[in-house]
Amino acid sequence: MRPPSDTEIAAAGDRIAAYIHRTPVMETRELVPGRTVALKLENTQVTGSFKARGAFNTLLSADVPAAGVVAASGGNHGAAVAHAARKLGHRATIFVPEMAGPSKIALIRATGADLRVVPGEYANAAAEAQAFEAETGAMQVHPYDAPATLAGQGTLLREWEAQGLAADTVVIAVGGGGLIGGSLAWLDGRRKVVAVEPERAPSLHAALKAGAPVDVEVGGIAANALGARRIGELCFGLAQRHHVASLLVTDAAIAEAQARLWQVCRQWVEPAGATALAALMSGVYQPEEDEAVAILVCGANPAPGPFD
User: Fold this and answer.
1) What region, left, alpha or beta, does residue 153 occupy, with left being phi > 0 and alpha being psi -120 to 50 degrees?
2) How many other β-carbons are positioned within 10 Å of the β-carbon of residue 66?
3) Residue 33 burial by CB count (10 A; 0-12/13-18/19+): exposed, middle or buried?
4) Contacting residues for 271 by C-beta, under 8 A, at least 6 apart
5) Three-state secondary structure call for residue 61
6) 308 burial class (0-12, 13-18, 19+ CB within 10 angstroms)?
């Protein structure tokens, strides 16, 4: 299994263009005093996260069986797969852990997918999805460690560059590694990429320290989006190749960044969507004085949601 090429990411961008939003960008000097920060508002994407890119690319580039698709998810991936399946006329069965929370569960249920809520954490939902795949022949749509997923997520940086991204450095939150993996595959070293993880969900950080992907304990306020127990192999290889370090931020710093995005930019995002910004606001990442920094705001499905 290898990461996608820039040609494959470009093809994915053309393939999914009719099904996703071209999400807006903005600049502000109000989030971090004395510094202009560029934002890519992927929280405004279809179903509220970048996951729609990978989901549509996977389904559009595969022969989906009559049994449809199956996915395990902390919430955002499941919503994206369920939405893509409905748009493309496929059956979808989605397994989510109880910790996904009411907002994400309601979002998936609204697509009409066959939703299965599993006790415990994401690993339990993943096991149930694998069993369902073996029993029915449904096609598994992996949330982060598959070339088609990374190619879809890589379209985000391709799109941002087409919108005039001028940053030296792009700061990206990491869960299982699909988003940062796709971004690294597209950028191929042209810009510095900074990985940010919650202290209580450090899958990439632990893997880089160990020299290989390892299991970690996960928890905290961003666990239902960034709580992968093990970083994806594709992401890990790309992070090693491009010498990406993972910075860790506290739950308190994430919550502060989440509030600040609302107060300053009127962007109401989930904790995962504010995690990259938390590194800059808290000083965990300290750019050079003349370093142009861009923040990827990746998800907009908080619990409770604004109308819960």
Assistant:
1) alpha
2) 9
3) exposed
4) 198, 221, 222, 225, 251, 254, 255, 258, 302
5) coil
6) exposed
Helix or strand (DSSP H, E) at 93:
strand 92-97
Helix axes 233-241, 147-162, angle to 10 degrees: 50
- With H, G, I as helix, E, B as strand and everything else as coil, classify residue 141: coil
Could you read off the pLDDT of 294-303 as tens digits, one per residue? 999 998 877 7
CATH topology of domain 6-49+146-297: Rossmann fold (3.40.50)
Other Cβ atoms within 10 Å of 62 Cβ, number: 12
pLDDT tens for residues 21-68? 999 999 999 999 889 999 999 999 999 999 999 999 999 999 999 999
Domain range list for the chain: 6-49+146-297, 52-140
Residue 307, pLDDT score: 56
Q: Does domain 52-140 have CATH number 3.40.190.80?
A: no
Contact of 82 with 68, CB cutoff 8 Å: no
DSSP string computed for 163-200: TT---SEEEEE-SSSHHHHHHHHHHTTSSEEEEEEETT
Return the residue matching tokens 């029993």.
135
Q: Tokens for 44, please give them.
A: 């405004």
Question: Alpha helices, DSSP H only, in the chain?
Answer: 6-16, 51-60, 76-88, 102-110, 122-136, 147-162, 178-187, 203-210, 223-226, 233-241, 251-265, 271-282
Flag residues of the chain having pLDDT under 70: 304-308
Structure tokens at 144: 């982060």
Q: What length is written for the chain?
A: 308
